[in-house]
Amino acid sequence: MIIEDEKLICNELSKLLENNNYEAVILKDFKNALNEILEVSPDLILLDINIPFINGEALLQNLRKESNIPVIMVTSINSETDEALSISYGADDYITKPYNPNILLLRIGAVLKRTKTNYNTNGNELIYKELKFDSQKGIIKKEDIEIELTKNEMIIFSYLLNHQNKIVTREELMTTLWDNSEYVNENALTVNISRLRNKLKEIGYVDAIDTRKGLGYILS
Amino acid sequence: MIIEDEKLICNELSKLLENNNYEAVILKDFKNALNEILEVSPDLILLDINIPFINGEALLQNLRKESNIPVIMVTSINSETDEALSISYGADDYITKPYNPNILLLRIGAVLKRTKTNYNTNGNELIYKELKFDSQKGIIKKEDIEIELTKNEMIIFSYLLNHQNKIVTREELMTTLWDNSEYVNENALTVNISRLRNKLKEIGYVDAIDTRKGLGYILS
DNA sequence: ATTTAACCTTACAGTTTTGTAACATTGGGA
DNA sequence: TCCCAATGTTACAAAACTGTAAGGTTAAAT
Questions:
Q1: In chain A, pLDDT over 90 holds for what percent of residues?
Q2: How far is B8 from chain A (nearest CA, A)?
Q3: Smallest Cα–Cα separation from A162: which of B121, B37, B124, B112?
């Protein structure tokens, strides 16, 4: 979605995007911008910071209260203040006019790539050696073999993956698993670790999770 | 982690970061960069593109084969070619020297914020109106109330959330749920949707998931 | 207004998940 | 070397999850 008041630039951008297999929508009603954005729910917004009737930064700030749709700010002036503000208000990137079309496309591609995790269910793959772990469905894939993890195993494995090569304390894991519930046996964690290890063993990862006695566990 | 050959800049950066509650590590052995990075497993890398013994772009390219650690490229020349290359090789952002310390900090903050989904188990929160959904643990929070979703409900709700305001076909959901398994009753989806709706109803979201007969479902 | 395919609800039983308990093992310090 | 706290394993029963079937409801098309 293009939010920009100069018709000429709008059309240019539109063509550029459509020539590159994006679907472009131009926001018409600046006064009703927020509603229109949420209605259309675009995959990405190109937002000019200087448009009549509305303050681009304020719009971004309001949008961020309701949505994480990626936003690339387009600024006329290469002002560091604008840049700083855009980023702190939640823009995903910014570019200054006049822009180089190729760079704009690269930036759009880069933003979409790094935000797609939030927009595409299949973007949840974490990689561990030869394994791919779909942290949404809790499925570990090794070539053609697939292993399903239970919810607890998923939580533990995700946590370890996200802290690869770092020691993770038992307490951290306890909190992550049972944060807000009543007391559970300390041993419940040990058992769940054991179960996870067994599943990893099935696909040849025998010592993936190492115990550091007195400290915690480490995935390496 | 700072990857930079000018000692002076290294120290400046180090101080700046530590004054702002980051932990800074300076890469020493440029020839063994990739191993050292993976060993240290930093939360973010500041990578100068022009360092001796190694080509910054090549390093980034190699790093990206093994890890998604966020990288901010630091370039001396404001060359559009560099910029374009960095982004296409997988840098998360870039900044040109001489940099404004405040902007560098903002950019670091922004990159960490948007990438933390992959690095921090608590970064998996999706927002839907007044609800927060932890898509990792499958917990929906509304103020102080919490509701737990089962694995199937999690998958459906995540998918709908990621396609908010868009019609999602039953087939899409079937594939997402049972992609690689044997045949399941068409009705199994209906039942799971029904269960999810009931849980949403418990916290006051009665018509959150709307049926578009013949087309699919829409979360709005 | 009627029809009918699409969708919903409920109950149920097979299966999986999970915390607990009881006992086994381990590794680091004294 | 011995000891013991920390960690592992196994079995088990309660609880949760999930697909199916059977029958009900709905809305779009004729």
A1: 30
A2: 24
A3: B121
Which of residues 171-210 of A have CB within 7 Å of strand D? 186-187, 190-191, 193-194, 197
SS (H, E, C) chain B: CEECCCHHHHHHHHHHHHHCCCCCCECCCHHHHHHHHHHHCCCCEEEECEECCEEHHHHHHHHHCCCCCCEEEEECCCCHHHHHHHHHHCCCEEEECCCCHHHHHHHHHHHHHHHHHHHCHHHCEEEECCEEEECCCCEEEECCEEEECCHHHHHHHHHHHHCCCCEECHHHHHHHHHCCCCCCCHHHHHHHHHHHHHHHHHCCCCCCEEEECCCEEEEC
Tell me the average confidence (pLDDT) per consecutive run of 10 residues in chain B, 220 residues long.
89 91 87 81 87 77 76 74 63 78 84 59 69 89 90 94 84 86 84 96 91 91
Neighbours of A216 (CB within 10 A): 17
Point out the nucleotide closest to B184 (alpha carbon to C1′). D19
A179 touches strand C (CB under 7 A): no
Q: Which of A80, A92, A146 sits opposite B180 (nearest CB)?
A: A146
A164 touches chain B (CB under 8 A): yes
Q: Could you tell me the pTM of the whole model?
A: 0.63
pLDDT one-digit tens code per residue, A129-141: 889 898 888 999 9
DSSP label at A143?
A: T
Spell out the domains of chain B, with CATH numbers in brackets: 2-119 (3.40.50.2300), 123-219 (1.10.10.10)
What is the tens place of the pLDDT at every residue in B25-79?
998 888 888 888 877 888 899 998 877 777 777 888 778 766 778 888 887 765 6
Residues of A in contact with B176 (CB under 8 A): 121
